[in-house]
Amino acid sequence: MPADAPGIPATPPRSALSGRDQQLVDDASTILRQASDQGIAVSQAALGRQLRAAGHTVGNDRLHWLMTTARTAIAGTPDS
User: Fold this and answer.
1) Domain limits at 69?
2) Rounded to two decimals, what is the model's pTM?
3) Between vectors from CA 51 to CA 23 and to CA 49, what angle results, nearest 5°?
4) Residue 58 reports pLDDT greater than 50
């Protein structure tokens, strides 16, 4: 289903994210990048658990958006 389909919001540009959302994306990106470096796949549920263990509040309904946005952030980040 296209991102601009009714009921499915397109991913906002990173500059349009609130401070809380930006922190969630940054922390999710770190978790996903570290797991990838170790050859580990992270499910949405596992990402949610790790973020909550780190003190974040994130609803299950936002995890798909967060996973997609974090992966996009990783893809747009040059390798160090």
Assistant:
1) 17-75
2) 0.72
3) 160
4) yes
Which two structure tokens, joined as six digits, stand for 77? 């980040």
Query: Number of folded domains in the chain?
Result: 1
Within-domain flag for 63: yes
* pLDDT tens-place string over residues 19-31: 888 899 999 999 9
Residues ≥6 apart with Cβ < 8 Å to 77: 29
4 within a domain of the structure (yes/no) = no
- Could you tell me if residue 11 is inside a domain? no
- Kindly state whether residue 25 falls inside one of the protein's structural domains: yes
CA 16-52-45 angle, 5° bins: 90
**DSSP-derived secondary structure for 21-52:** HHHHHHHHHHHHHHHHHTT----HHHHHHHHH
Is residue 24 within 8 Å of 68, Cβ to Cβ?
A: no
